């Protein structure tokens, strides 16, 4: 339990920091590196402590040489640019970033619970209860709705890209594939195979509704423990997606099935709006957001 005295002491430290309310040039020297949290494509992620305040963060270190070698400069800059503008309780906050000759450091909110994917694997029978799934889908939908309101399509929603905070709330992360979509419809194929929407397989133009499809796949995976179109080969997965060939185990409730089937629609225009997902009777029965 954190005592009021500790909070006051911490707040005093924050207010006495040169960065408080002022332009401040952060550098890696402001942080003390702690244990490793994981490895990413271009570097590693560590827990870290801001030296003057003791504030815990995660630092994602990216090696510039690896980014250049993979020709991903634009993708990385886009991830930084997009994530630095998104401020929502269920989106992993990019607090600041800095760089030196060889590295880029992303200072992000620390998600003490780690990857949601691990929670799913460790859950009884490798799947979440309907109550847990309703809370989780509500929080991800709220985050994605906020992204869409800011003209950002995530394009890579899956349990591996969602982290869990200390209080159990979800944090949508990994904006490496996301794009700013100012009213424009796009054509690049990206994302993970099991989560690919039909319009991307058919290489048609697509819009924000690709995320609605992925939310249907995500909810199914929460409840069943594996994505609905998972198959042995890529061709079989594609065929199942294009036929919307979904099998629901008997333990999935009619309410959950109804919601998933309203997101997994071939026509992107027919997919349920995100507001309607949050207000769907199955979600409403099982989850009440704290701020209401
Ligand atoms: N803010 C954080 N808090 C706690 N753990 C984190 C945080 N950020 C990343 N991690 C851990 O580090 C791992 C790698 O980070 P991340 O997924 O951001 O790298 P990446 O380059 O996007 O990886 P990839 O795209 O290959 O999945 C994550 O899977 C997670 O376990």
Walkthrough of the structure:
By secondary structure, the chain is α+β, with helices and mostly antiparallel strands. Helices cover 37% and strands 17% of the residues. It is globular and about 55 Å long. Helix 5 (130-149) runs antiparallel to helix 7. The protein has helices at 4-16, 64-69, 73-85, 116-122, 130-149, 198-201, 209-224, 234-242, 254-263, 274-278, 281-286; strands spanning 31-40, 43-50, 56-63, 94-99, 103-109, 114-115, 152-153, 162-164, 170-172, 179-180. 33% of the residues are buried. It has 2 domains: 4-109, Phosphorylase Kinase, domain 1; 114-286, Transferase(Phosphotransferase), domain 1. The strands form 3 sheets. It has a 5-stranded antiparallel beta sheet with strand order 1-2-3-5-4. Strands 6-8-9 form a 3-stranded antiparallel beta sheet. Strands 7-10 form a two-stranded antiparallel sheet. A hairpin with a 5-residue loop joins strand 2 (43-50) and strand 3 (56-63). The model has no long low-confidence stretch (mean pLDDT 91). The protein has 11 helices and 10 strands. Bound molecules: adenosine-5'-triphosphate. The site of adenosine-5'-triphosphate has 18 residues, from strand 1, strand 3, strand 5 and strand 6. Adenosine-5'-triphosphate (ATP) is lined by residues 37-41, 45, 58, 60, 92, 108-111, 114-115, 163, 174, 176. There is a cross-link at residue 158 (Glycyl lysine isopeptide (Lys-Gly) (interchain with G-Cter in SUMO2)). It catalyses: L-seryl-[protein] + ATP = O-phospho-L-seryl-[protein] + ADP + H(+); L-threonyl-[protein] + ATP = O-phospho-L-threonyl-[protein] + ADP + H(+).
């Amino acid at each position: 339990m954190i005592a009021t005295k500790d909070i006051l002491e911490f707040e005093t430290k924050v207010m006495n920091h040169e960065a408080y309310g002022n332009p401040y040039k952060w550098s890696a020297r402001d942080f003390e590196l702690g244990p490793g949290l994981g490895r990413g494509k271009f570097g590693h992620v560590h827990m870290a402590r801001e030296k003057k305040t003791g504030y815990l963060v995660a630092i994602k270190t990216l090696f510039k040489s690896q980014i250049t070698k993979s020709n991903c400069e634009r993708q990385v800059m886009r991830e930084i640019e997009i994530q630095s503008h998104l401020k929502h309780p269920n989106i992993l906050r990019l607090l600041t970033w800095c760089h030196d000759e060889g590295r880029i450091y992303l200072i992000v909110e620390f998600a003490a619970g780690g990857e949601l994917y691990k929670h799913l694997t460790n859950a009884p029978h490798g799947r979440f209860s309907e109550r847990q799934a309703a809370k989780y889908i509500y929080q991800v939908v709220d985050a994605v709705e906020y992204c869409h309101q800011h003209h950002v399509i995530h394009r890579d929603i899956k349990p591996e890209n969602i982290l869990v905070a200390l209080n159990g709330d979800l944090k949508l992360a990994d904006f490496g594939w996301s794009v700013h979509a100012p009213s424009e419809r796009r054509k690049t194929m990206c994302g993970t195979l099991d989560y690919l929407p039909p319009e991307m397989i058919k290489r048609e133009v697509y819009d924000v509704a690709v995320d609605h499809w992925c939310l249907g796949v995500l909810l199914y995976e929460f409840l069943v423990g594996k994505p609905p179109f998972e198959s042995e080969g890529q061709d079989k997965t594609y065929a199942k997606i294009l036929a919307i060939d979904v099998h629901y185990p008997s333990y999935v409730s009619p309410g959950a099935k109804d919601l998933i089937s309203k997101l997994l629609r071939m026509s992107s225009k027919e997919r349920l709006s995100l507001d309607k997902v949050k207000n769907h009777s199955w979600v409403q029965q099982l989850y009440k957001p704290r701020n209401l």
